[in-house]
Write the structure tokens for this entry.
Amino acid sequence: MKPFEYADEKIGSKELVYIVASMMIGVGILTLPRLIATHTKTSDGWISLLGSGAFFIFFGWFLAKMISAYPHKSFLEYTTITMTKPVARVLTAILGMTFLFTCALETRVIANISKLYMFDQTPIEAVALTFLLVLIYAVSGSRIALLRLNMMFLPIVLAITLLVQVFNVSLFQPENLRPIFTTPLLGYFQGAQETIFSFVGYVIILSYVSLMNKPKDAPKMTMIGIGIPLILYLIIYTVAIGVFGTLATSEITYPTIEIAKEIEAPGGFVERFESIFFTVWIMTVFNTASMALDISVHLFKSLFKIKKSTLIYISSPVVYLVAMIPENTNQIQLLGKVIALIGFFFGVIYPILFFIVTRIRGGKKHA
């Protein structure tokens, strides 16, 4: 084994799986069961989830396939090669702002939930500022070190989340899942639409494939990375419906956390399991928000040639202000929908345009 094996500035294929999965498993999963249950009947939401998941797995593979043909090139560089420099600069700016708003949304939601379940006497502004300061510290360091935190945090988050579902077996009512296939086709489609925010996180490969030491593995690893959250979403949704029923799930703001509240540990050893669950969940939200801020900073750095530290100091107040603008849950959800729509463009429309332009120009042309 060579010395300082992890002192390089490249990521391996397996690390991309963790990165994609961690980016997708953020705050969206906390409300996902409610959003799907609003449009579907009984347990039919799994059809919307599965269909949407298959759709995004394909486009995740397609996007990775397109950009892996330009190894070690940044988003601005390979978009300039295919779509001209002015278009590339506009798209880079839009993508940078989208990830900046994603960081702001994650910060606001984590502050709201922290106040609701843990720090009821602490102002939301103080919780958000504390979380943002931790993000700033993390992003100021090595990008590769930040990305490798996913390999440590994600297994813990997955293990605790699955444990929560297992603990609710005694409360699970199979009759809540029946009858199936009773939802109108429009309901399935609307349910699938609600999953966009939870799935489009794979667009981070637009930035991180350039850091891979084996870019050709990106399509396969992206598919696996999307598949992990898909399986987790299916499990959490099914348990939520089985425990609460469709009507109750559609009315609960954060069904995923409420599932943890239903747990009663033997002997009363743990009185508030949701606090433990939420504390662990902060790990993946931290990963999601920190990667979003990191990508935003580096996209703007490629545009304006400004020092990374300077961009962090400029971006951070913007993140905080955007996070504090929404006055209620509806406005927070509106911000999430805007991010989801832009993410859909970069995750689905962009690779199609990329493919068409590349074919018109007669294949890739490295600059």
